[in-house]
Amino acid sequence: MPMARRPHSYPEPVERLIEAFGRMPGIGRRTATRLAFHVLKDSPEEARSLCEAVQDVKERVACCSMCWQLTEVDPCPICSSPARDASTILVVEQPHDLMSLESTGMYTGVYHVLTGRIDPLAGVEPSDLTVATLFERVDDPSCNCRGEQVSEIILGLNPNLEGDSTALYLADELTRRSVRVTRLARGLPSGTQLEYASTAVLADALEGRRDVGSG
Predict the structure, then answer these.
(1) What predicted TM-score, i.e. pTM, was given to this entire model?
(2) For the residues 97-108, what does the mean pLDDT come to?
(3) Which of 119, 142, 157, 208 sits CB 3.0–4.6 Å from 185 for a disulfide?
(4) Which CATH number covers residue 140?
């Protein structure tokens, strides 16, 4: 059924495009309208390229079954690389945090992406994240990269209220499993996001990581 048009609205295809852009996080109608008109002004080739890029993302990209990073192959190149130390897992909130830390070139272990953080006010509980599979990797080496036993978990959560709460929950659960638990050094400003920190700051945070519970 064609959608109802309000008075003085744009043609139906344009309205559908505006509504599609408007469903994206942080995009209001004004911005969605600008994006729609940008697409209208583009050449047919550019528009087709955009459509193909969206289609490729949906058809070719998925989460690694081991670490939950975005990947075209499963397991992802980091998890399957024999050059990576699979006994050390760096836990992050989102794939873009992983990419920021990877850009330092200092970390040689593997990762685990939680796909979010615990936030009771927003209804996000541990069961909504990939916490269970992290614990499986620690408890059972066959669930970890190349069957290696995990010896250290580095908590690389964002230094804000929700990130700290998530880190405390994970630390409490993991220390019961006889695994070393560390966190990134507090060279990261409180309240910031890992993806916006400079490579030098992230490198210092990795190098200066401390055991959870130490002063």
Answers:
(1) 0.75
(2) 92
(3) 208
(4) 3.40.1360.10
